[in-house]
From TrEMBL:
<protein>
    <submittedName>
        <fullName>Carboxylesterase family protein</fullName>
    </submittedName>
</protein>
<dbReference type="InterPro" id="IPR029058">
    <property type="entry name" value="AB_hydrolase_fold"/>
</dbReference>
<dbReference type="Pfam" id="PF20434">
    <property type="entry name" value="BD-FAE"/>
</dbReference>
<keyword id="KW-0732">Signal</keyword>
<dbReference type="InterPro" id="IPR050300">
    <property type="entry name" value="GDXG_lipolytic_enzyme"/>
</dbReference>
<keyword id="KW-0378">Hydrolase</keyword>
<dbReference type="GO" id="GO:0016787">
    <property type="term" value="F:hydrolase activity"/>
</dbReference>
<feature type="domain" description="BD-FAE-like">
    <location>
        <begin position="60"/>
        <end position="199"/>
    </location>
</feature>
<dbReference type="InterPro" id="IPR049492">
    <property type="entry name" value="BD-FAE-like_dom"/>
</dbReference>
<feature type="signal peptide">
    <location>
        <begin position="1"/>
        <end position="20"/>
    </location>
</feature>
C-alpha cells in the first residue's frame, strides 16, 4: 500500500509539472499550423499621464490563431520602433511579426505606448523610455489579469514574453532587467513618473516575463542583467549607426547619451548565467529586418527564425514565478550563484542588505522535475553537484526569486 501511494504521488507530481509547461508537440510554435489569424483591434489595456500631463488611453491589437482550441497559450507582446517620437501598433513590421507568430500558435500583441518628449534633450528621452517600459509592464499585467478573470484571450500567465524593435527594444530590455530604482539615473526622477512598475493600469498582477526579445535595442548599462534574470534573445546589425551594436551615443541632435547594445548585453548575460542568443547581422544597419527590400526580407526571415528557435525550448521549461502584487517583484533581490558555469560546486549568496531567512528550497531540472530538496541554512552557502548532469537548473523557494544555475 505504501509503495502504491508513493507511485501515485510521483505520478501526480509529473502531471503537475507537465501541466505547468506548454505542449509543443505536433510542430506547434514551430510550424505555421494556422492559415488564418484573428485580430482584435484597439483593445484598451490601460491609461497613463503623458508628457503633456494629460491622461492617454493605451491600446493594443491582439492576434490569435483562428480556430485554435488550446486553453492556455503563450503570449508575445511587441513594441514598435520610432525613437519614442513616432510609430504605432499598426506599423507594417509589427503586423507582420505578430501575424507570423500567431500562425505558429502564440497569442501576440502589438502595443501603443506613450510617445513624444519636450524639451528634446537627454533627460527627457530617458523619461520617455521609462514611460514606455511602464506601459509595456501594464500590458503584461493586462494578460495576467485576463488569465485570472475572463480568460478571453486564453493566455498562460506564466509564459509571457516581451520584445520590441529599436525603441521598443529599449522598453523590453527595461521590463526584463531594470528592477531596482537605484539603477535609474537620478535626473530621470523615477518616483515622480510612478516608479519602475508605473501606474499605467492593471495593478495587483506581476509584470515579470519569461524572456526578452531585443531587436536593435540597447539600454543604460550591462549591469542591469543579473543572475536569475529571464533569458535574452538579441538581433542587431554591426553597422547600426542609430543604436550602437556595442556602446555609443544615441540621439544625433541630443546632448551625449551613451548606451550599450547587444554586442555587450549578450556577453554580460553569458557571464552571469542568463541563457541567451545573439544573432549578429554583420554589416547591417539599423532595424534592417523592417526593410521591404530583398535584403530586408531576408533579414526579417532570419529574425523570425532566430526568435522562433530561441523561444520554443523555453516553453518546455517551468514558466515565470509569479507574485500576486505588482509592487512585490523581487527579481532585484535575487541571490548570486557563481561560478557560471560551474564544474563541482556553486556558491549561493544573498545580496548585501537583504534579510536572510533559512528555508526549504527545491532544485528543478530543465523539464521542471524536482531533482533535489535541501535546506538553505546560511546567507552564503555551497551547493555541491553530487551527480547532477550537465545543464541548466532552477533553484526555487517560497521566499526566494527563482535562480538559474548552470553545471558544465
Amino acid at each position: 500500500m505504501k509503495k502504491l501511494l508513493l507511485v501515485l504521488l510521483a505520478w501526480l507530481g509529473l502531471q503537475v509539472a507537465a501541466s505547468a509547461q506548454i505542449d509543443t508537440t505536433g510542430g506547434r510554435y514551430y510550424q505555421p499550423l494556422f492559415s488564418n489569424v484573428t485580430v482584435t483591434s484597439g483593445v484598451v489595456y490601460g491609461s497613463a499621464i503623458n508628457f503633456l500631463g494629460a491622461v492617454q488611453p493605451l491600446a493594443m491589437d491582439i492576434y490569435q490563431p483562428t480556430g485554435d482550441t488550446v486553453s492556455r497559450r503563450p503570449v508575445i507582446i511587441f513594441a514598435h520602433q520610432g525613437g519614442f517620437v513616432t510609430g504605432s501598433r499598426t506599423d507594417a513590421y509589427m503586423v507582420k511579426v505578430c501575424t507570423q507568430f500567431a500562425r505558429l500558435g502564440y497569442v501576440t500583441a502589438s502595443i501603443d505606448y506613450r510617445l513624444l518628449f519636450l524639451p528634446f534633450d537627454t533627460v527627457n528621452i530617458a523619461k520617455a523610455s521609462i514611460r514606455g517600459m511602464q506601459d509595456m509592464r501594464a500590458a503584461v499585467r493586462f494578460f495576467r489579469q485576463d488569465a485570472a478573470t475572463t480568460r478571453l484571450y486564453r493566455a498562460n500567465p506564466r509564459y509571457i514574453v516581451v520584445g520590441g524593435s529599436s525603441a521598443g527594444g529599449f522598453c523590453a530590455l527595461q521590463v526584463g532587467y531594470l528592477d531596482k530604482a537605484s539603477e535609474v539615473p537620478g535626473y530621470v526622477g523615477l518616483a515622480s513618473l510612478g516608479g519602475i512598475e508605473g501606474q499605467s493600469g492593471n495593478p495587483g498582477y506581476s509584470s515579470a516575463v519569461l524572456a526578452v526579445l531585443n531587436l536593435s535595442g540597447a539600454t543604460e548599462s550591462t549591469s542591469y542583467i543579473e543572475p536569475g534574470n529571464p533569458p535574452l534573445c538579441s538581433v542587431h546589425g554591426t553597422a547600426d549607426n542609430v543604436v550602437p551594436y556595442f556602446k555609443g551615443r544615441v540621439g544625433s541632435s541630443l546632448p551625449p547619451k551613451y548606451v550599450v547594445g547587444s554586442g555587450l548585453l549578450n556577453p554580460r548575460a553569458t557571464a552571469v548565467g542568463v541563457p541567451n542568443t545573439l544573432r549578429t547581422l554583420r554589416g547591417a544597419g539599423h532595424i534592417p529586418f523592417e526593410s521591404t527590400s530583398a535584403n530586408g526580407l531576408a533579414y526579417a526571415d532570419t529574425t523570425f527564425r532566430t526568435i522562433r528557435d530561441f523561444l520554443r525550448p523555453l516553453l518546455r521549461q517551468p514558466g515565470t514565478v509569479l507574485s500576486t502584487a505588482s509592487g512585490s517583484r523581487s527579481a532585484g533581490q535575487a541571490p548570486s550563484a557563481y561560478p557560471v558555469p560551474a564544474s563541482n560546486e556553486i556558491r549561493l549568496a544573498v545580496p548585501r542588505g537583504t534579510v536572510f531567512r533559512p528555508q526549504e528550497v527545491e532544485l528543478l531540472d530543465a523539464t521542471g522535475r524536482v531533482v533535489r530538496r535541501f535546506r538553505w541554512e546560511e546567507a552564503n552557502q555551497l551547493l555541491l553537484r553530487e551527480g547532477l548532469k550537465a545543464g541548466t537548473y532552477l533553484l526555487r523557494g517560497e521566499q526566494l526569486p527563482t535562480v538559474r544555475l548552470l553545471f558544465e
